[in-house]
Specification:
about 220 residues; 8 helices; Alpha/beta knot; about 25% strand; 60s Ribosomal Protein L30, Chain: A; 2 domains; alpha/beta; about 30% helix; four-stranded mixed β-sheet
């Protein structure tokens, strides 16, 4: 379910919204969204607050269909291994949408990308990125015969000394605390790390993923 004006607008534009729920005191405020062909159900603010997990609900929701599972992988893939924070998952989706990565693979230990928190953090990217929910991330990675498979790891070589272009790419991002499973590390072409000259031990997983993706963009566009 998409909540809030921006997410509802995105769900309608990308044709994933099935019907709308609107607070009966917000009809005038959201008239533009309500003028479409979707069914609309008016509820009291108190009723809507019971289905919202935000402190201050905006009074507008879209009930959406979940895209059918896809086996098609694009040429720019992010794969998540046991990433537990749905906010990180959504932020990674948002960055993928901005940079031009097209496919997200998540394993069973990763937070649900369709959870309300992940959807909000994605800022609508959830409706544009192909998502593969895999029972075995190892099996999925083994299928990527022609891909450059890179993994973020503290023991890797510098990201800025790594060739990331030339063929399709898959970047593996691991658990916030434990990193990637060893079985996945064994499948990579290169282990890469982001130099940290300061005092911090590591970067947030979503930030690290963003740095990797933007370095790929820099190399791809020679900027």
């Amino acid at each position: 379910m998409a909540e809030g004006e921006h997410m509802v607008e995105e769900s309608i534009r990308e044709r994933h919204a099935k019907y709308l729920l609107c607070a009966d005191n917000c009809v005038d405020k959201y008239q533009k969204l309500l003028d479409g062909k979707l069914p609309i159900y008016l509820l009291s603010p108190a009723s809507l607050s019971k289905i919202s997990d935000t402190k201050t609900p905006q009074g507008i929701f879209a009930v959406c269909d979940i895209p059918k599972p896809t086996n098609h992988l694009g040429k720019k893939v992010i794969a998540l291994n046991a990433l537990q924070d749905p906010g990180n998952v959504g932020t990674i989706l948002r960055t993928m949408d901005a940079v031009g990565f097209d496919t997200l693979i998540v394993d069973e230990k990763t937070a649900d990308p369709y959870s309300s928190k992940a959807m909000r953090a994605s800022m609508g990217a959830i409706f544009r990125i192909s998502i593969v929910q895999s029972q075995s991330l190892v099996d999925e990675i083994k299928k990527l015969k022609d891909y450059n498979i890179l993994a973020g790891a503290l023991e890797g070589k510098s990201l800025y000394n790594t060739q990331m272009t030339g063929k399709p790419i898959c970047i593996l991002i691991g658990n916030e605390g434990k990193g990637l499973d060893q079985e996945l590390l064994n499948l990579t072409d290169s282990l890469i790390k982001i130099p940290i000259p300061g005092q911090a031990e590591s970067l947030n997983a979503a930030i690290a993923a963003a740095v990797f993706m933007y370095e790929h963009l820099k190399q791809e566009q020679n900027i």
